[in-house]
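Researcher: I'm comparing several assemblies side by side, and this is the next one on my list. It has 758 residues spread over two chains. Same procedure as the others: predict the full complex and return the structure.
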Amino acid sequence: MTQPASTKKTGAQILWESLAREGVTCVFGYPGGAILPAYDAMLDYPIRHILVRHEQGATHMADGYSRATGQVGVAIATSGPGATNMVTGLATAMLDSIPIVCITGQVGSKLIGSDAFQETDITGITLPVTKHNYLVTRADEVAKTVREAFYVARSGRPGPVLIDITKDAQQSSCEFVWPDPPKLRGYRPAHRPVAREIQHAVDLIHSAKKPVILAGHGISISGAGDVVRKFAERTNIPVATTLLGIGAFPASHPLNLGMMGMHGEAWVNTAIQEADLLLAFGMRFDDRVTGNLKTYALNAKKIHIDIDPAEINKNVRVDVGLVGDLKETLEELMPQIENCDKSEWNAYVNGLKGDAAVRDIQNLPDNGHLYAAHVINDIWRATEGKAIVVTDVGQHQMWEAQYYKHDDDRSLITSGGLGTMGFALPAAIGAKVARPDAEVWVVVGDGGFQMTMCELATIAQENIDINIAVINNGFLGMVRQWQEFFYERRYAATPMTSPDFVKLTEAFGLTAHRVETRAGVIPAVEAARKHPGTVLIDFRVEQEDSVFPMVPAGNDLHNMIRRPSAIVETGADA
Amino acid sequence: MNLHTFVVHVENKPGVLTRVSGLIRRRGFNIESLTVGHAETEGVSRMTIVVSTDDFGARRVESNLYKLIDVLRVDDITNRPAVTRDLALVKVAATRETRVEIMQLAEAYRARIVDVAPGSLIVEVTGAEEKVDSMVEVLQPYGVLELARTGRVTMARGAIQEPEMTRDFEDVEATDDAAVSYSV
């Protein structure tokens, strides 16, 4: 303060200045010793800070914020345990290509390597779970690093970036200069496909008799929804989606077959197995969608469009690999695409659906049971399919994918690649903060909910208005299902006693109801929607219910465990 | 499966070796040999990495290496004419009786004696890996006390090929990537 005319700023001030210039208006974080200078400086900047209850929550919130909007989400924590608590969130974002920037405090640069209090090598630890990471030891590196981190996070195939800033870098001062756009000589996020291969792809598309589009998360990331729809309509090719591709192609579109893979509908997987051409759009042939690779779509030529060259030929050998932004690549393809008639194939695939295509689970009797599928389908009806649904991981996640029909892009937020339990509640907070006008529903199991339920306190403190449907079956349901199918019903460590979720929620100052009958579902959902503020509904659903169909891990995609007919008859269609 | 040799140019920054070796490890490949040193351009290090894999694996190693922001250029020079060298320092036990014999052997390998002590010699041998292997084997009966090898250093013969990057690693626009075929 002795030199008021100076334009010098501390590293901490530069951090916030730089974040603001990157368009950040909100961060999710938890303070601590090594990040204290940054927190102190934060008060002078117009940035909303949401105090989480666990740093893992901060990363999932940043992740949910990003998934709901496509913008970069930001989480901040202190060194040591604060930083290590972020690892799960970083890995979650890494596997699903989500652009988040995590900022961690670090002990003073002179103490690095000395096992100082709350010191941990977080750049070393997070190497495999970040797209890139930085250790900043000087104030004059802060602005450049932040600018570069945001550029890296959001460009090319997006991903999480971590910036570790030593305490002395936050405290010392230097002239603030906002750097030019980064020029990284080793980083080439933009690729474009080879012209002759575009032509090869066009020829394959025109000559295919039994083609299927595999629609993945890349459609959302690239903003290619419209061009994919136009492409599908012009070529008359049916579309199967991955879990993360749900919403990127409207569920109600006549060409949408539904979700593929382990819990995809039988006709979807059968169509893929019988196809003569697969068009993979921004998806990565994960083992959960291919099953046994040795028998996967053996008769199909494959065209793979992805922005990441390392995805081409990683799991499935393809005939044409087009490396580039999906939207740009399809726009390049489109002028050469003629109207196609694949009606014979479409009719055949629709025939595969049989009764299932027209079966409406709402019309099936429940015999007095409360089934999760009914609960989720009722939430879909009540919200008219317009809500952002944030799921956790497990059975409820698959039922959501099957029975909530998403027509809107970015309306399903779920941890696909890493399968992170505990993701839903914090990610939903992030989504709601990013899109305050959207109706946000959490669909979560009793197991996953208990992993991060401390964030109910964050909801209460920050007046977050979301609704939470706990699909409570008293089991770690998906693991129990595997034990039932593959381990002779030996339920090792899957039965789970939970606290009274209604009382628990009320203890946080929030509203909660319990629903035990099917008749109670719609009224409770409607009441929650009308209530200003977060409402939790504890749905006590059927305990030993399973998700069908199912391709056992590593099995051939066409060898599904089908819904037992007895279950279909009694209405437990799930 | 066969040995693939990659020449990798990287930013000379702290932690880059860890990023490169860690990436190859976590993608399930085994590094047979890795050498690193300064390249001809300031601020750039050059690695020679030997990985045991098939052709598809080699493409995956290459494309994954390119995902690292600090990696400037990757060349799989496995099937290109190249000069490969390995350097070894071999400390071998030597008595008054065997010393001359060892020195003669070294000469046959065009190796050099770089240290002479009362009970030992240090032999410096340079050449293709097989030659170094052979030298070490021949010295074994005398008693190899210590062995240090650099691992494989490789350079493609002839003029520099320019598939993707300019020589000085500059004037590469982030968006100006040459179109590369990724199809089979």
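Model: For your comparison table: The longest strand of chain B covers residues 82-93.
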